[in-house]
Amino acid sequence: MKKLQAVLITGGAGYIGSHAVQEARTYGFEPVTYDNLSTGHAWAVKGSLLVKGELADRKKLSEAFKKFKPVAVMHFASHIAVGESVINPQKYYQDNLTNAMNLFSVMLERKVRYFILSSTAATYGDPLEVPIPETHPQVPVNPYGDSKWILERILAWYDKAYGLRSTFLRYFNAAGADASGKIGEVHDPETHLIPLVLDAAMGRRKEITVFGQDYPTPDGTCIRDYIHVTDLAGAHFLALKRMMETDKSDFFNLGTGKGFSVREVITRAEEVTGMKVPVRMGSRRAGDPPELVARADKAQEALGWQPRHSSLENILKTTWAWHRNYFGKKSAGRKNKRAGHS
Ligand code: UDP
User: Fold this and answer.
1) In this structure, what CATH number is given to the domain that contains residue 106?
2) pTM for this structure?
3) Number of structural domains found in the chain
4) Does some domain include residue 157?
5) How far, in Å, is the centroid of ligand 1 from the Cα of 193?
6) 132 CA to middle of ligand 1, Å?
């Protein structure tokens, strides 16, 4: 049997990274996770290679390249919370930039020429047109988006100077969980809308706070384009294959082209779960553009990518199944422990 080509997946034990690890072999690649497990989980990459290491540790990183000889790097390891980035920008610039710079220098040393960047719709800032095409001006309105935009610009120069090819995948809102029920989103603290809404449905939290109801949208709440994490993961390998064939850098939006407001997400979550979601109206969260919806045709045409799993209903169903499986078991475990002590 032909040996699969290795791909180094930083942050492979995290939410989106672990779904990429899960999909890799289907697309003909062997995933090697490089993760410090600070927010990721070893259980999320069971059955594949895991190197526990820091991106700041150049020696360890270099050894991993030497040992596994990856043909490409997918870089998921990053801080990702928009709201936090406004309050603590240093964390975002310091870590998101220096870690990536380390990675690039080891790639150049080891002559690895293909890089996939987890970029974001947040690089566009407040959109001038919706749906947002890839050619839209990039004027980020929060440090998270800005740190990714800076990386895009660095990589454009690295392409010219060093021939390091890269693809920027500008994610809209990643959500959902793998159909196996074995992996899914676990952030601590959780900041994303869909898991928080389902937490409220499950009674794991008292309520969901809606951040702002005075936006210029039909119901006054923010509109986002939710894309299933399995679709997102698949796009990475299609993009990598194309980049290796064409030997050219490129950039794509990854979204569905359809937006849902925060209120709509809550209503649909109540339908899918059959549970009431207690809602509290709150003020706007700094750094949130009113509407982020992708123009999604470039990836579909150039990569032959189809967001097959990304109906809002399927996103909510798979997240709900994961939630009950993971958090349901955890709280049963806690109850048992308490019972054991009494
Ligand atoms: N949101 C909200 N309440 C929450 C978390 C998020 O109203 O507790 C809103 C947030 O303001 C944004 C949308 O839900 O308009 C999606 O936010 P999320 O943090 O999931 O993703 P982001 O768009 O920031 O990447």
Assistant:
1) 3.40.50.720
2) 0.95
3) 1
4) yes
5) 5
6) 18
